[in-house]
Amino acid sequence: MNISDIEVAKQTINREIEALKVMENNLDETLSKALDLLQNTKGRVIVTGMGKSGHIGSKIAATMASTGTPAFFLHPSEASHGDLGMITADDVVIAISNSGESKELSDILVYCRRFSIPLIAITKNKDSSLGKNSDLVLLLPDNKEACPLGLAPMSSTTATLVMGDILSADLMVRKGFTEEDFKLRHPGGKLGSILRHVSDIMHTGDEMPLIGKNAIMQDALMTMSEKMLGCVGIVNEQGELEGMITDGDLRRWMSPDLITENVCKVMTKNPRTINADALIAEAVNVMNTTGRGITNMFVTENKKPIGIIHIHDCLKAGVS
Questions:
Q1: Is the per-residue pLDDT at 291 higher than 80?
Q2: How far is CA 171 from the centre of its chain?
Q3: Which residues on adjacent β-strands are paired with residue 307?
Q4: SS3 for 34?
Q5: What's the pTM?
Q6: Using CA atoms, how far apart are residues 289 and 274, in angstroms rounded to an integer?
Q7: Which DSSP helix (H) or strand (E) runs through 274?
């Protein structure tokens, strides 16, 4: 048979979609009971599985750990050689086996039954050895694998992965998991940089280039040179930000008597500002979309400057 690559791809996608639809229709109150166990555990969630199920289990444990549910993956073979000691009476175990008959899981099953450790099974066969020895069974669809031979785990591993995502997503909602919580668990990489706030990178205190509204441009030039941020903020008697002078303003107002002019004559009134708790990504968006673009922005609270950021600070933080 001559079957194109695209046809095989579409067959694979459709078979996996069919499996997910079956799993969706099979969802019942067992899911909520499993979530109750996972949410209320005093210990950790321990995920285990052999072969392809183990690889998916590792991802499920990693997702849970990064989204507010302490979890780790325990390899069945290592468990049989001493790592059973990692499981405590306060933990919940999730055991994964498509058939429910993985022999490598037997020691974990016996250990959980002996010490009354809650066990949630993810399997397509609730009457299997795993299903019968578990407190709860989350059913996988009993569909044919998407593999052209119907042998290699494809539909089943996709369904297992989605079941893990369902558990993680539900737990996030139940626990009120926030972007700030996510940031704390992802300090590195692109995700961590995207979730950083303006307050994490802003210049504060003496680093801020500020002068009073009664000052002259000579004072402004000296402050700009000293602070080296390419701008100066103009504040009134109450300490509120009224304007801002940038390198661009200097070029537009260049004249022999510029240094004797009052700063209020040269400044840009009511410059764009941002809150300290805003994401850096929001600050970059404001800088890039304001008129011809700006490179500095003051951070204010009740109209008073508490910090300043430069576009270079954002780039150094990994946000562009």
A1: no
A2: 15
A3: 299
A4: helix
A5: 0.69
A6: 14
A7: strand 273-274
Report the Cα 43 to chain-centroid distance in Å.
23
Is 5 in a helix, a strand, or coil?
A: helix
Question: Which residue do the tokens 């392809």 mark?
Answer: 52
Residue with structure tokens 């397509």?
Answer: 124
Separation CA 19–CA 14 (nearest Å)? 9
| Buried-exposed string 64-87: b where 16+ CB fall within 10 A, e elsewhere | bbebbbebbbbbbeebeeeebeeb
The residue behind tokens 């940038």 is 246
Residues 6+ apart with CB under 8 A from 179: 195
What confidence tier does 320 reach under pLDDT thresholds 50, 70, 90? low
What is the b/e burial string over 199-215, where b = at least 16 CB atoms within 10 angstroms of the residue's CB? bebbbeeeebbbbeeeb
pLDDT, one tens digit per residue, over 210-260 is 999 999 989 989 999 898 888 999 999 999 999 999 888 888 887 888 888
Residue 119 backbone class (left: φ over 0; alpha: ψ -120 to 50; beta: rest): beta
b/e sequence 38-59, b meaning 16+ C-beta within 10 Å: beebeebbbbbbbebbbbbbbe
User: Cα separation of 98 and 227, whole Å?
Assistant: 64
What is the spatial distance between Cα 185 and Cα 149, in angstroms, rounded to a whole number?
A: 41
